[in-house]
Amino acid sequence: MNEQLAQSVRQLIDATIRTEVDDTTLTTVQSKIDWATEQLSASLMPGSFGVRQMSDGRSRALGNVVIGDRNPVAPPLRIHDDADGLVWTDFVLGAAYEGPPGHVHGGVCAMILDHVLGATAHLPDKPAYTGTLTLRYLRGTPLGQPLRAEAHVDRIDGTKTFAVGHIADAEGVTVQAEGVFIHPREAQP
Amino acid sequence: MNEQLAQSVRQLIDATIRTEVDDTTLTTVQSKIDWATEQLSASLMPGSFGVRQMSDGRSRALGNVVIGDRNPVAPPLRIHDDADGLVWTDFVLGAAYEGPPGHVHGGVCAMILDHVLGATAHLPDKPAYTGTLTLRYLRGTPLGQPLRAEAHVDRIDGTKTFAVGHIADAEGVTVQAEGVFIHPREAQP
């Protein structure tokens, strides 16, 4: 249910940016939104969602800003992890992710590549943290068109995983990335 | 009015992630959200907001994912540009920007640093585009605590601006960044 609500809020976000209705309608809508927030706030967890064990025994980060099904800010990306080690995700980004007019913000590309490259190093219940990340922007990444982000491990050296990847549209690569991801020897953020 | 609505939607996003109310309430709230989206969608601009000339003659990117006042996904950051060339912004990020439990997603730090470093190179109506961006993560960046991102120009070489900066919390720097930002010779995304 929370996931379905988050999906409805994603559509609301898009409409909030793009609407051209009059102020009277905006006022009416805003009061309904405030009412909805009040209803949901009758019982709130402290802090953020974090990572939780679900009923199937698997840990899930439902509040994550990139992949969290409960987080309306997340597209959310579905990360696939092929047997040959390729990590990839297909997605389309709308008006909420805009930087240059009609294009995805370069920082959003960085955010997605951080997550997808990092996913090459993740192990069950043993996440990897970003050490360094380098991005090379070749050209603008379009809003509203099919995009793919992918990454693979270049090499592993002790606790460090060196990953490379990119974002591409139908015409080819728009942003390249390389990063070093670290498995801490003991738990730390 | 649109900016006030966006602020209400930001509060709704936080409550959507953190709510623990029962399914009956979630269903009722979701139907109200869908109604609100329908009202706003009675008149929608095509595509995204882009950059528009306001009544005061200044151009504004109200739909921008980092600074856009109309975009509920944007915190939104207020970017200050000091006379000595320092660009900075103070902010607090909530549950919607989570990566590691209780911490800002490394990709969100990258997004903010891309924007703040890029702002050192922006000229009125002549934005700069990211060429390369390198991030070094020193430790986790906390959710719910005061943060500052700042940047300055290291050097300029033709159309290229070399900028450096960081994000810090009360204990010091959490992420360092350096980037090259480019003024295209002719208009391009």
Explain the overall architecture.
The structure is a homodimer of 189-residue chains. Chain A is an alpha+beta fold. In chain A, 26% of the residues lie in helices and 28% in strands. Chain A has three helices and eight strands; from the N terminus they run ααββββαββββ. In chain A, the strands form two sheets. Chain A has a six-stranded antiparallel sheet, covered by helices on one side. Chain A has a two-stranded antiparallel sheet with strand order 1-2. In chain A, β6 (147-157) and β7 form a beta hairpin. The longest helix of chain A has 18 residues, at 23-40. The interface between A and B is large, with 89 and 89 residues.
Topology order of chain A in helix (H) and strand (E) letters? HHEEEEHEEEE
Proportion of helical residues of chain A:
25-40%
Give the termini separation of chain A.
Answer: 29 Å
How large, in whole angstroms, is the Cα Rg of chain A?
19 Å
Fill in the keyword field for this structure:
homodimer; alpha+beta; six-stranded antiparallel beta sheet; 8 strands
Gist?
Chain A contains 3 helices and 8 strands. The first copy, chain A, has 189 residues and is of the alpha+beta class. In chain A, the strands form 2 sheets. A 6-stranded antiparallel beta sheet of chain A has the order 3-4-6-7-8-5, with helices on one face. Chain A has a two-stranded antiparallel sheet with strand order 1-2.
